[in-house]
Amino acid sequence: MVVLNRIYTRTGDAGQTALGSGERVSKAHLRIQAYGTVDETNSTLGVVRLHTSSPEMQKLDQMLARIQNELFDLGADLCVPDTGKDLGYEPLRILPKQYERIEQEIDELNGQLSPLRSFVLPGGHPAAAHLHITRTVCRRAERLIVELASHEGEHVSEGAIAYVNRLSDFFFVASRWANATSGAGDVLWVPGKTRST
């Protein structure tokens, strides 16, 4: 499926790149921004996983490893627009069972947490703090994907939008779980805390 024996090709020197369908577009094209931000989300997860190798974090680390692989699936889905044309092969698409598993994992992690009575601030355990960065990058990816889907003639699979929407929720719950599991606990927002100082 993928062969990378040369890293630079010089084909992008004029500011264009190829989609999975072979169509060439500007590197500033919204589709490229969308799956580039999915890639950025994946890169931040690599940093999160530097902090989830301890035995008590193994469950979360395994979930994150699956998500890292699926983010490449998501990028492949976005890279090949579903125009209905026969490409000579079956393009990779995000399936409902993938985001349904994310929902189950959200429920599993959230079931071990106390209800929130305030918004949380990014912080606590290093994994939790980095998961908040991942969450916000993922939300940006979602906004770009939704914007792309709103443009006439641009095709985005329903699965791609559903998956990235569930994923940012997962990262939020996972950050709370990492803080709870490590003993750091939630870092809570106190409205107006510094107004009188």
Keywords:
single chain; 197 residues; mainly alpha; two-stranded antiparallel sheet; 5 helices; 54% helix
Helix and strand arrangement:
Layout: E1 16-18, E2 24-26, H1 30-48, H2 58-79, H3 96-110, H4 126-150, H5 158-182
Antiparallel strand pairs: 1-2
Helix pairs in contact: 1-2, 1-4, 2-5, 3-5, 4-5
Describe this structure in words.
The chain is mostly helical. The chain contains 5 helices and 2 strands. The chain has a two-stranded antiparallel sheet with strand order 1-2. A hairpin with a 5-residue loop joins strand 1 and strand 2 (24-26). Helix 1 (30-48) runs antiparallel to helix 4 and helix 2 packs antiparallel against helix 5 (158-182). 31% of the residues are buried. The model has no long low-confidence stretch (mean pLDDT 90).
